[in-house]
Amino acid sequence: MYKVQVLLSTYNGERYLAELINSLLEQKGVDINILVRDDGSTDRTVEILERFKETGLLDYYQGQNIKPARSFLDLINRAGTADYYAFCDQDDYWENCKLLRAINMINIYYNQPALYFSKAELVDENLKPIKYSKYPKQAYTFGQALIKNNATGCTMVFNKMLLDIVKRYNPIFVTMHDYWVYLVALAIGAKVIFDQNSYVKYRQHSNNVVGGKRKIIKEYSHKLSMLIYKNKTRSKMAVELKKGYYDLMPEENKIIIDKIVNYNMSFKGKWDLIVDKNIKPIYLIDKITFIFAVLFGAF
After folding, report:
1. Domain segments of the chain: what residues?
2. Average of pLDDT values for 244-265?
3. Which CATH class is domain 2-209?
4. pTM, full prediction
5. Residues sharing a CB contact under 8 Å with residue 248, sequence separation 6 or more, in sequence order
6. Tens of pLDDT along 187-201?
């Protein structure tokens, strides 16, 4: 039986936390352990964690409020020994076959770094389906992922080989933990597997950090702010990837990274980035935003 460590960051999650943890403990066919970092909760979250700690299957520790991305990266650095690791959001609900399904799909790649992710079913506060997401439809290439993330963290499962590679570098700049792990996996040529099915109920409510509609609004707000304020989010991520993993990248990914890191030095650099077929957005809105961001030095 494979050992899986679930990495969970909590913050004032008392409302749905017990329901989530129970769904984790009901996973079939795996030896599960849950590692939780509480990000400074002021409600009953820690009390709930303490109660589940008595099962012997959950450990937790408390820290300052450093927001989800940094909280999850801290969990990665403190992760114990396991065969596989999975990110988890505090207000979701897992089908009892979620982990086993993921492991069955990536286990054949045991001798190389591997990452699994899937679709997520959007549900309301009572777990009633809102809609089944049409997206994503596939895993992105490295160049496509540098423009847009399409992997949802709560669906991710990855092996120890990938975890150890991610742990070797702690980025100064990072947007979200799931995007970072996805980019690292693609950058180094890890096996990335996408499952068209969903085994996670992705709860939508007013307090969750990233939800379906909220995620879309946040995404397009980010696109607008990227152009207005020239925050250079993508090129900053590329710089971090180059610092941490350049030696592990295949040559074609080194070329992509170098183009993004250096594009703003000349108009030729911008043009070469825009016309590069390996860095081609899929959707029209992303293509338009990408072109303008590059031309205005905001990518």
Report:
1. 2-209, 216-295
2. 98
3. alpha beta
4. 0.92
5. 165, 187, 188, 189
6. 999 999 999 999 999
